[in-house]
Amino acid sequence: MTAKQKRKTKKSLSGGLAMLREVIDQLPPSEKKLATYILEQPDEAIHCTANELGNLSSTSSAAVIRLCKSLGLKGLPELKLRISGDLHKATEVENYRDIQPGESQTSIVEKVTNNSLRAITETTEFLNYETLDQAVKALQRASKIYLFGVGASGIIAQDAQQKFFRMNKATSAFTDIHNAAMDIATVTKDDVVFGISFSGETKETVKIMELAKRKGATTISLTRYGNSSIVEHSDIHLYISASREVPAPFRSGATSSRLAQLHMIDLLFVSVVTGNYEEAALYLNEIKNAMEFLKQE
What we know:
Elements: H1 3-11, H2 16-23, H3 29-40, H4 42-45, H5 50-56, H6 61-70, H7 76-87, H8 105-126, H9 129-141, E1 144-149, H10 152-165, E2 170-174, H11 177-184, E3 192-196, H12 203-215, E4 218-224, H13 229-232, E5 236-240, H14 252-275, H15 277-295
Parallel strand pairs: 1-2, 1-3, 3-4, 4-5
Helix pairs in contact: 3-6, 5-6, 8-14, 9-14, 10-14, 11-12, 14-15
């Protein structure tokens, strides 16, 4: 990455406020108190040092450092940069809104569209470009890619398999833990095991990731932002917006999280293809020719 690209990446950072909202309920008391202050006074917080922020929130500079670590950030400067990016956004997508019984078609279209846009936007804001680069390089080097997810996350795993298969990359996708375990039993350090779980606590996915890590494979997780069991068993952590699902029959948040997961898979696939453009173009052209052959009478 050139110096110019790095400067551009830094300028485009945002999502600090969303990160705080996502993890605030998981934080210990002092960090939670600090996070609350920042969410209530973001304009003030971005101009403070760690000591000043600790004093204003009745915590400490040590709490500031711990909070940044809990967020997975390098330090206070990155947190302030992300919050500053939030405050300078030209437009703001509305908060998540759940569908209610008897809603009009117009309202349904507006709410579902808004929720989908917000999930994708926040997922992009959470993105750590260094982590993304690590994931892309791991996938490019992998002898074989194993994808695992349960339920809706299993559908995401199958979508990822369909994409990477077009790169002539040996790829398997499983939704059954027993079949996955049998295949992963022979993984090596040259393979990648990719676990997908929105909650980050799906027992089957956590066990598969634990097994893969014991076998020495590179492990990548895709889950909601924040601490979770699946993250503990993965080398590379990719996050999506938690979308703050509302416990209503329609559960429109689940739809939003699925789109956010697909968005992340698309980012990975396009990045892998771009990094191996000539080779990828050859494979994709061969696939196109095969599809054209099938259409012939």
